[in-house]
C-alpha cells in the first residue's frame, strides 16, 4: 500500500492550496483518513481528519480556513486550505487506516509528505 501526496508548494499569505493524497495497492477499504503537519522543531500535529462516513474533525488552529474531503471510489483525500498564514508552513503528511486482504486488523499508513511554505 502506498499513499502519495501532491499539491504542496510556495504561496503568499492569504493564498490557497489544495492537497491531494491517493492510496493505492491491495486495499479492501479505508477507515479514517487525515492530514497531519510537522513544522521544523515541532511535533507532528493533526490538521484534519475524516471518517469513511464523512464526519470531520479539525484542529482549532485551522478551523474555518481548511476543508477536508474524500472520494471513497478513488481512495483519495483532499485538503483545501485558504487564508494561509506563515505559521501554516510545514511538511504535510497524509494518513489512512487501511484494511488489506488476509489481515485481521486495519493498519496505519503514511505518505512521504509534501512541503507547504507560506511567505509573509
Helical content (DSSP H or I, runs of 4+): under 10%
The first-to-last residue Cα distance is 37 Å
Structural class: mainly beta
Task: Quote the average pLDDT.
Answer: 96
Considering the chains and any ligands shown, give keywords for the structure.
single chain, 120 residues, mainly beta, four-stranded antiparallel sheet, 11 strands, 0% helix, 57% strand, elongated
How would you characterize this protein structure?
With 120 residues, this protein is mainly beta. The chain contains no helices and 11 strands.
Please sum up the structure shown.
This protein has no helices and 11 strands. By secondary structure, the chain is an all-beta fold.
Helix and strand topology:
Blueprint: E1 2-6, E2 9-12, E3 17-24, E4 29-38, E5 45-50, E6 56-58, E7 66-71, E8 76-81, E9 90-99, E10 107-110, E11 114-119
Parallel strand pairs: 2-11
Antiparallel strand pairs: 1-3, 3-8, 4-5, 4-9, 5-6, 7-8, 9-10, 9-11
